[in-house]
Amino acid sequence: MENMAERIITIEKDVENIKDRLDKVEDKQESFNELVICVKELAINMKNMTEVQKKQNDRLEKLENEPLDNAKYYRRETIKTIITIVVGAVVGALIALVIK
């Protein structure tokens, strides 16, 4: 009977030890779950920041190219004006020769 009582006491101590270890595992699991949630939130935030940065890069590229586009436009208009002046002068000279 004493032997049985000693075994019961040993088993109870083992059960208490196992309960303590299980509590620690549960605490670690909870911490791990919180970490997983934080990592997911971080990934979502990074994705959103990447999208915003891409939009900003697109806008910046447009702003950088705008002066170049304006320069091309004004160069074309200048060439058109010069050609118009030259053609007008030639036509005017021809008309003046014909009228004389």
Question: Overview of this structure, please?
Answer:
The chain is mainly alpha-helical. It has one domain (1-70). It is rod-shaped. The model has no long low-confidence stretch (mean pLDDT 91). Helices cover 98% and strands 0% of the residues. The protein has 1 helix and no strands.
Mean pLDDT: 91
**Shape, per Cα inertia axes:** rod-shaped
Tell me the number of helical segments per DSSP (H or I, 4 or more residues long): 1
The structure class reads mainly alpha
Strand content: under 5%
Domains, number: 1
Nearest-angstrom radius of gyration?
Answer: 43 Å
Strand-and-helix sequence, N→C? H
Q: Compute the separation of the termini in Å.
A: 146 Å
- What does the main sheet amount to? none
The quaternary structure here is single chain
Helix content: over 70%
Number of strands: 0
Q: Show unreliable segments.
A: none
What can be said about this structure in brief?
This protein is mostly helical and 100 residues long. It has one helix spanning 2-99. The protein has one domain (1-70).
